[in-house]
Amino acid sequence: MLTNALRCLLRNPVAGRRNMSHSSLAGKVAIVTASTDGIGLAAAQALGKRGAHVVVSSRRQANVDKAVALLKSQSIQVTGTTCNVGSGEDREKLVKMTLDQCGGVDILVSNAAVNPFFGNIMDSTEAVWDKILDVNVKSAFLLTKLVVPHMTKRGGGNVVFVSSVAGYQPMQALGPYSVSKTALLGLTRALAPELAHSNIRVNCVAPGVIKTRFSSALWQSEEIAEEFKKQLSIKRLGEPEDIGGVIAFLCSEEASYITGETITVTGGMSCRL
Ligand SMILES: NC(=O)c1ccc[n+]([C@@H]2O[C@H](COP(=O)([O-])OP(=O)(O)OC[C@H]3O[C@@H](n4cnc5c(N)ncnc54)[C@H](OP(=O)(O)O)[C@@H]3O)[C@@H](O)[C@H]2O)c1
After folding, report:
1. Which of 32, 104, 213, 223 is most buried, taking the most CB atoms under 10 A from its CB?
2. 59 lines ligand 1 (CB under 6 A)
3. How much is the pTM?
4. Which CATH superfamily is 23-265 part of?
């Protein structure tokens, strides 16, 4: 019987490949920005549980230390450093440290975002726009530009941007932030065809309302949370793990024919451009 199975595999190598786990990320190195809490931390956990060595970072050393300790306690291979993605110097330090300590990079999850402004879009200032576009959009592109040559050297890789349902339907009082998240949908589509030549896939996830510190204004009041739930098919708010798994899937061989896409992960909130 064993001989028959081996003969079948020799005649049909694709069947053999299909039997291997296509979700495994063993041997891969993954940079996840803003990964000491919330969605970034959940993405680092999901990638790490599939065997990737994850490089976690955020602005505060104490948060980095805490996340590294947590991931180590879960037997995840992890390295940590501080990185404010809005700083060019910090972005370069993050990539250099990854190359020095992990020998290369295969995956970039660009997850960091800020929102310094709530209110009518017409009241937003140039300083607000500069900050939002620098951190949420430009840094995502500039980090991609830094890692692409190193992914190319390893024969390919994956980039995942974290957008938002607000990128499809601007949220009230979050105009500039919402526009920055729409820009990431465009960035995904602009990069994907160019980087496909280097076997690098570029995709994006657009979370709905996920229970994290960042979105606490949207769910801490029972009344507002109930309003959001009315818009959902699945009547609960999202958890960071709901997004982490989708990000890991996009970086895996299971998604090897997906590029230039944004997956909305919203519990069924309807969204379209
Ligand atoms: N939560 C939601 O409902 C929701 C929905 C749609 C999209 N998103 C998107 O998901 C992403 C993550 O949000 P989250 O909800 O997971 O936030 P979160 O739980 O509040 O975590 C934010 C993380 O970002 C780090 N951080 C903040 N500013 C940074 C910067 N300039 N450079 C590097 N790290 C930075 C924080 O650590 P430090 O303080 O140490 O820097 C922390 O680790 C964002 O892009 C957000 O727009 C969230």
Report:
1. 32
2. yes
3. 0.94
4. NAD(P)-binding Rossmann-like Domain (3.40.50.720)
